[in-house]
Amino acid sequence: MITHLKAGDTAPDFTAKIQTGASVSLSDYKGKKLVLYFYPKDNTPGCTAQACNIRDNYQDLLDKGYAVLGVSPDSEKKHNNFIDKFELPFDLIADTDHQLIQAYGVWGPKKFMGREYDGLHRTTFIIDEEGKIEEVIMKVKTKAHYEQILG
Question: Is residue 52 annotated as a catalytic residue, yes or no?
């Protein structure tokens, strides 16, 4: 397990830049449930499948009172390209300095094709209306993430 955060914990506060260069903060979502999902990289197969699964069910998430924010270490420019290419209706945080990634504990050792390296672990945090973590999804199914979010 990478993150030390669990259901019932207060979500780490943040202020970060989204793809437009504007700032968002956790406090902006007070009174709403927030799906804060961390993913490794724009325009890769798994990350695209995950983003499109959320996109395809976005209106239903809104209707159920959820807001959505994606987070990766990619730049604002890469996020804009990703959003335009796949018509994503939600904002993406450009966490280029890894502040959120570190605060939420989703960076650590990974293995891929026999190679070990440090990287971002695909993890989703469901945060309630008061800023408490309701659920941590660590084994994300990229093509069925919406179903996992609603549990």
Answer: no
